[in-house]
Write a structure and sequence with these properties.
Low-confidence stretches: 199-209
Number of helices: 7
Mean pLDDT: 77
Number of strands: 9
Helix content: 25-40%
Strand order of the largest sheet: 4-5-6-7-3-2-1-8-9
Strand content: 15-25%
Structural class: alpha+beta
Order of helices and strands: EHHHEEHEEEEHHEHE
Distance between the termini: 13 Å
Largest sheet: 9 strands, antiparallel
């Protein structure tokens, strides 16, 4: 089913089930080297994992990436689910922020869902806001207000596009990956004209495992 930590205007969702991939011996042989290569090519994620003090290859269960419908690059949410202990993780983040370690600072001292800002080392542009949800999920976003929206105590996601919400609610939680995109968010001018485009354009969205 769908993760409750999704913004109301979500129009694109990609979820990768890392735990399922690692539990399969055959897939693990392919997935582990791929993950290590991905971490090398995306150093920000590797640095973020170090700050959080988690091991993506042993503790991470799922990664979900959701974006809004207005194509604003900052309107993106990444939700990490895993086996980590929420209290221990919360303690690590608080201690690191007090020491200003690794560019981490506390920007919202809400006891239930404190929000931290991670500034990239070397004064590089582009900071990321990090929070722990009440159920132990790690939520990150370049936009603080977008992050605040998903931290509201909702029991489930409440998306403005009901058809899109139905499609992601039907996702198989055991699938290795799931992707869904709302038809209203697709830039059809980028798709070659023809019967295929017309058929897809009349649909409310696309999804698949």
């Amino acid at each position: 089913g769908q993760d409750r930590l999704l913004p109301s205007d979500t129009s694109f969702l990609l979820t990768v089930n890392t735990r399922a991939a690692l539990q399969s011996a055959a897939l693990r042989e392919l997935f582990v080297p791929w993950c290590k290569t991905a971490l090398e090519k995306a150093p920000n994620f590797g640095q973020l994992a170090d700050i959080l003090g988690i091991d993506p290859l042993t503790e991470l269960w799922t990664v979900s990436v959701a974006t809004g419908s207005n194509r604003d690059q900052d309107r993106i949410i990444v939700v990490l689910r895993g086996s980590w202990d929420k209290q221990s993780l919360a303690g690590r983040l608080l201690e690191k922020s007090k020491r200003m370690e690794s560019g981490l600072s506390l920007v919202n001292d809400n006891k239930q869902t404190p929000v931290y800002q991670w500034s990239r080392p070397g004064g590089k542009p582009g900071s990321v806001f990090i929070a722990l949800s009440t159920d132990g999920g790690i939520v990150t976003s370049p936009a603080k207000d977008y992050l605040a929206q998903v931290l509201r105590p909702n029991e489930k996601a409440d998306l403005s596009d009901r058809h899109f919400q139905d499609s992601i609610a039907a996702m198989n939680p055991r699938a290795l990956a799931f992707v869904a995109v709302s038809g209203t968010s697709i830039d059809w001018s980028m798709v070659p004209e023809g019967k295929a485009r017309d058929a897809f354009k009349s649909s409310r969205g696309l999804s698949g495992h």
